Amino acid sequence: MPDSTETVAGVHPDADRGPARTADRALRVLLAFRQRPEWGVSDLARTLGLDKANIHRLLTTLAGRGFVLADPDTRRYRLGPAIAVLARAAERGGALEAAARPFLSELAHDLDESAILNVPHGAAYRCTLAVDAAGPIRYSATVGETIPAHGGAAGHAIFAFYPVDQVRDLLAGALPKFNAHTVVDLDDLLARYERVRADGVAISHGEFDPNVTSVAAPCFAAGQVVGSVVVIGPQDRMSGKVDTAVDRVRAVAERLSRVLDGVPTTT
Amino acid sequence: MPDSTETVAGVHPDADRGPARTADRALRVLLAFRQRPEWGVSDLARTLGLDKANIHRLLTTLAGRGFVLADPDTRRYRLGPAIAVLARAAERGGALEAAARPFLSELAHDLDESAILNVPHGAAYRCTLAVDAAGPIRYSATVGETIPAHGGAAGHAIFAFYPVDQVRDLLAGALPKFNAHTVVDLDDLLARYERVRADGVAISHGEFDPNVTSVAAPCFAAGQVVGSVVVIGPQDRMSGKVDTAVDRVRAVAERLSRVLDGVPTTT
DNA sequence: AACACTGTTTCAATTATTGAAACGCTATCG
DNA sequence: CGATAGCGTTTCAATAATTGAAACAGTGTT
């Protein structure tokens, strides 16, 4: 995923009707913080291949709106509170939620079970969008509910694609046991993650809620996990259609990922 | 909080060595999405007082890095996946957050309740980091949420250490009453602050959220309050461990303060 | 059928951006 | 202890990128 590319085409001297350069550089500065949480002016300038003075001005501009924050002592910059604010806005009305809605409806209708979108939230994940199944007996999801990372397939489908050391960091300490089927050992969980990565889906039989089976697949944007799509229902009813659910959920998650990367929907 | 201001001073024709205008405008475009989840080009241009063509270029620039995403059908823009990606980075590597994280985890684990970091934000405070308790019943904090200064122990622990005249200035006007236990009189609040300064901790029994007890202690950097550490949970469960919580929270806040004043944290 | 409204493209004027260089400053090293 | 190398910041003239008005192409409404 190229994001440090400055100019796409500099061959021809003219005809560079591209994006606004100054704004684009500011965005590149922001994105640099996912490689390293803390940057100094010179270091960042060297990394991005830009001038010191230029980076300095961009950083103060970003700081003026709260997107970064300068440690007064070390003179180094970290991401600021405006990011968290925007993230909250995105959780309600972001492109992910908007794009996922029709896909969830499709899943819920085809499989006749509830479909949910989850996003990572610290060492947990949060349900941001749900389309319940039509029938009276169904999994009724609560939008806004937060569930620990190791609880259920939806969590596996997200955190399996986190860097392993980050997972160890996030899930340090005892993992609460929700019932007999909960994965409580960290190494067991990491082994489980390996299979999830290989399969592209996670399946849970009552690991969080008892007697509930769920099938989840990750969706990506710019090469990173940003959430998971889940189909979930009562265990006895799901058992007959797990295979179908696996195919559908995986396909939908892939299509969603493609939309998020900017490729227009082909269907 | 003015954030739609274009130029700060346009009186004098020269001497505008301010932030980079193009980048700043791009940030204002981003911030507009917390007012409305979806924007069209013309509408946004009118709201920000800028030209259509200008906004269009900025939006495509933002879209190029994934900060916004255009619905191909409606041609309207929403916040994109890059926001969520950055939010994840900020959750781990924000300024204070980097230093506070291990302390919060320790508190949450030891007391088995949610632990939160708050920072002052005008006449309010904002939750910038939360480590939720493990169990199913817990205070689930929302990162980015802003709460008025006089609401809850976390606010007391911060603003008790502000200069008194500054507090009078900030909290001039009526203080909203959240429930029966909210402190709404400024003099009562200042008296309360005196006790908080003496104790080094603030305790709230349902002053903001009903049936919720919280224990908060301030953390300092360079002699100034920069935030507060809170342990918070359901009132009935907390009542048995308030004394323990007071000791732990105070101790952790002091250790955090020492870290902030001492060795530069490199993650 | 004309209208009002989108989003997009074009293009010359000008304005804001840019990068090199100079400036304090702190820490490291010989 | 003085020199040096690194940092972040400021300055400023040249330049190149931004800008906004206007024209364009659709769409849905009146």
From TrEMBL, chains A, B:
InterPro entries: GAF-like_dom_sf, HTH_MetabolicPath_Reg, Tscrpt_reg_IclR_C, Tscrpt_reg_IclR_N, WH-like_DNA-bd_sf, WH_DNA-bd_sf. Residues 82-262 form the IclR-ED domain. The keyword Plastid does not apply. Residues 20-81 form the HTH iclR-type domain. The keyword DNA-binding applies. Pfam families: HTH_IclR (PF09339), IclR_C (PF01614). GO terms for molecular function: DNA binding; DNA-binding transcription factor activity. Keywords: DNA-binding, Transcription, Transcription regulation. GO terms for biological process: negative regulation of DNA-templated transcription. Coiled coil: none annotated. This is IclR family transcriptional regulator. It comes from Actinocatenispora rupis. The lineage of its organism: Bacteria, Bacillati, Actinomycetota, Actinomycetes, Micromonosporales.
